[in-house]
Amino acid sequence: TERHKILHRLLQEGSPSDI
Amino acid sequence: IATATAKKPAPMNTMVSHLLVVEPEKLYAMPDPALPDGPTKAASTLCDLADREIVVIIGWAKNIPGFPALSLADQMSVLQSVWLEVLLLVVAWRSLPCEDESVFAEDFALDEEAARAAGLLELSGVVLQLVCKYRALRLEREEYVLLKALALANSDSVHIEDMSAVQRLRDVLHEALLEYEVSRRPEEPRRAGRLLLTLPLLRQTATRVLNHFYSLKLEGKVPMHKLFLEMLEAMM
Q1: Residue B172 · residue B65 · CB < 8 Å
Q2: What is the pLDDT at residue B32?
Q3: In this structure, what are the phi and psi dihedrals at residue B116, rounded to the nearest 5 degrees?
Q4: What is the pLDDT of residues B46-94, one digit of tens each?
Q5: In angstroms, what separates the C-alpha of B165 from chain A's closest C-alpha?
Q6: What's the rounded Cα separation, in Å, for the pair B92 and B168?
């Protein structure tokens, strides 16, 4: 997940901020 | 009474109704007016649009019944393998009303001449082949939303841990498509199969588009957002 951290975060938190 | 019953429309399949409700809003490409027209601007517009589309696709996937029940790792594996197929289906759907134009966004449609000038002739050509197939089938909105959810569930990622859960998701959507066609298109008994048989071309198109984006990444002339790069790299 370290390599795919934005996808991981969006799935977990649903926050599209600061991409 | 018999006539009234016969004329009454078949009740909408609950899956189709749900998928129609969770359909995302349209996105706009908003090409940078400060940049001169040409291949770099077009590629840059497309990469920026794709990045925002991926965010929308992730949000949409969370609303597909059964998808949030997958483990987080499997949700990631599925999305990493099919996001471009889903995105291309969105573009194909947008392009359906426009003859010979690839409609990447409402404000970013390219006919042959514009695609050539933008250095996107090959990319536009493969998209149009897909559009042509759906136009011949006279794809309806209800079928489009079902097919898009099926494209998500049709992941063949080798990284999926619980394939039986993904298979269940696929089966539920497949069943909804069959039910929809039986109730709405009884005169076309092979229609569901015909729609499903477009998925190989969708995957083939995604592979070709992926190669295009990957070449752009290697050239390094076009800025790419982190999420887009992350998803691109996950497919290579």
Answers
A1: yes
A2: 87
A3: -65, -45
A4: 999 999 999 999 999 999 999 999 999 999 999 999 999 999 999 999 9
A5: 18
A6: 27
